[in-house]
């Protein structure tokens, strides 16, 4: 390879200014993401606030219903992935070579592992809202459509998808909202102490 052929390098073999700028920008972004990880409630409040601002913007502009519909479908797909186990129990039914969800009371506790972890769910949902918000600044995305049909179609799609997901949860006996291993209380010490 000759000088300057690799990505991000200038003619003299050093990283270009543009590459260094975007590399540093990516590091700052990742640093903020890492700092926000423990603050689950704050992250979701900010995302709900962005969602509320987006809804107000769409309401005031009276348009961009296709973008809003696409955002709703995207969030629905993220939510279904968030509720689903990482390893689908229906695929594990025939083979006994991998981990499975407990089906009896006396089996070992195995925590529910999601297909889409909470942090990635939040991150993708927030990015989706920001992209949809950016789309509202461009008239090309304002496709005229009769919005009540989109709302009805989304409600039907949501109900059918959630019904299928709930049936799957009941059939394979898993609950996606576990809070860790059960804690059992020991017997209370009601005996009298002997003093000599």
Automatic annotation (TrEMBL):
Recorded superkingdom: Eukaryota
Cellular compartment(s): Membrane
InterPro entries for this protein: Rer1
Entry's transmembrane regions: 41-60, 66-83, 145-162
GO cellular component terms attached to this protein's record: endoplasmic reticulum; Golgi membrane
Keyword tags: Membrane, Transmembrane, Transmembrane helix
GO biological process, any: protein retention in ER lumen
Function per UniProt: Involved in the retrieval of endoplasmic reticulum membrane proteins from the early Golgi compartment.
Annotated protein name in UniProt: Protein RER1
Species this chain originates from: Thinocorus orbignyianus
Gene: Rer1
